[in-house]
Amino acid sequence: MRCHAIWIVLLSYGAQVFAQSKGNLERPQPPTAPPAGKNARSFDWAAWLGPDGTGISRETGLIKQFPADGPRIVWRAPLGTGYSGISVAAGRVFTLYGRAGREYAACFAAADGKPLWKVDLDVDFAQGRSPGPRSTPTVDGDAVYVLGASGQLECLAAATGKPLWKMNVVEA
């Protein structure tokens, strides 16, 4: 999905969110709420819409305008289908995607895109619609929570992807 490529490009600028105004990129006013989750750092984006759910980054010193040839692409990861966003925490990038009838959770090193782990979660969700997961991983300390499109909720070890527990919220 296009969403994955957009977020990975933004990683070259520290996973920052920009507001477009008359061709210049301006930093929104930072929120005052503390970062979410255990051990969260101000530059982590560990859940959908960021540390406080506003979609506004606290990063400072942002560029005012992208270079003429666009932002430098640090790395790419061809994934698959779906609507998952990207979560960034403790130097790792987490996302979900669908491929070949399955859904996966994946973790990459933020610095260079090196794949760290991939976990097969569930059967890919389609039901006559676009296939793939529809949620964004949430990282809290040493755990990452992922929800597959058919209701498979799993808690994985953030460092290794090892399943800690799982349940199907549709069947529960």
Termini separation comes to 30 Å
Unreliable spans are 1-40
Morphology: globular
Order of strands in the sheet with the most strands?
3-4-5-6
Average of the residue pLDDT scores: 77
Report the radius of gyration as a whole number of Å: 16 Å
Q: Sketch the major β-sheet.
A: 4 strands, antiparallel
Spell the H/E element sequence: HEEEEEEEEEE
Give the DSSP E fraction (strand runs of 2 or more residues): 25-35%
Counted beta strands: 10
Structural class: mainly beta
Q: Provide a count of the helices.
A: 1
Structure description:
With 172 residues, the chain is mainly beta. 6% of the residues lie in helices and 31% in strands. The protein has a 4-stranded antiparallel sheet with strand order 3-4-5-6, with no helix packed on it. The longest helix is centred in the first third of the chain and has 10 residues, at 2-11. The protein is globular, with a radius of gyration of 16 Å. Residues 1-40 have low confidence and may be disordered.
Write a brief caption for the model:
With 172 residues, this protein is mainly beta.
Task: Break the fold down into its secondary structure elements and pairings.
Elements: H1 2-11, E1 19-21, E2 24-26, E3 87-89, E4 92-99, E5 102-109, E6 115-123, E7 138-140, E8 143-147, E9 152-157, E10 163-168
Antiparallel strand pairs: 1-2, 3-4, 4-5, 5-6, 7-8, 8-9, 9-10
